[in-house]
């Protein structure tokens, strides 16, 4: 297993750096263009959640990203400090949207659904004010 770590300020302006790093790593592992684009969207959603829901008690709030490459997969872990949230409820409610008018859609809450739809495995763990989202994509033959 090879591991690459990245730490960015918890500001939306820095999420592009994570996407560029992901592109480089996934390209070296021979992921398809479509899989890379899917992973970029999922990672962006996880980082956006960390920016929006992370700790506001410190001006030095960071997001930690760990890319773990294995023979047939890439695991991406996004961690941030902040108040815990009921991720079980979000995962349980992550389902396709009912046919409805766009004006009736709720604001937010689609991130978990998008991550699940685009990645092969998604887990969320919250312990002692640290939330970690783990995304796994398997390399297809």
Account of the 3D structure:
The chain is an alpha+beta fold and 141 residues long. It has one domain: Heat Shock Protein 90 (2-Layer Sandwich). It is built from four helices and five strands, in the order E-H-H-E-E-H-H-E-E. It has a five-stranded antiparallel β-sheet, with helices on one face. Strand 2 and strand 3 form a beta hairpin. Helix 1 runs antiparallel to helix 2 and helix 2 runs antiparallel to helix 4. The chain is globular. The mean pLDDT is 85.
Low-confidence stretches: none
Shape: globular
Question: In what range is the share of β-strand residues?
Answer: 25-35%
Strand order of the largest sheet: 1-2-3-5-4
Average pLDDT confidence is: 85
Order of helices and strands: EHHEEHHEE
Which radius of gyration do the C-alpha atoms yield?
15 Å
What name is given to the CATH topology?
Heat Shock Protein 90
Helix content: 25-40%
CATH architecture: 2-Layer Sandwich
Tally of individual domains: 1
**What is the highest CATH level, the class?**
Alpha Beta
């Amino acid at each position: 297993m090879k591991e690459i770590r990245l730490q960015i300020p918890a500001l939306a302006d820095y999420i592009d750096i994570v996407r560029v790093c992901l592109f480089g790593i996934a390209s070296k592992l021979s992921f398809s263009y479509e899989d890379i684009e899917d992973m970029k969207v999922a990672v962006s959603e996880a980082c956006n959640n960390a920016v929006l829901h992370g700790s506001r008690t410190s001006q030095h709030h960071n997001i930690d990203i760990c890319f773990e490459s294995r023979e047939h997969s890439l695991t991406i872990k996004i961690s941030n400090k902040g108040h815990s949230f009921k991720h079980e409820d979000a995962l349980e409610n992550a389902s396709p949207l009912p046919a409805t008018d766009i004006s009736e859609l709720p604001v937010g809450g689609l991130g978990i659904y998008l991550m699940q739809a685009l990645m092969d495995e998604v887990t969320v763990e919250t312990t002692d004010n640290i939330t970690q989202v783990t995304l796994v994509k398997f390399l297809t033959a």
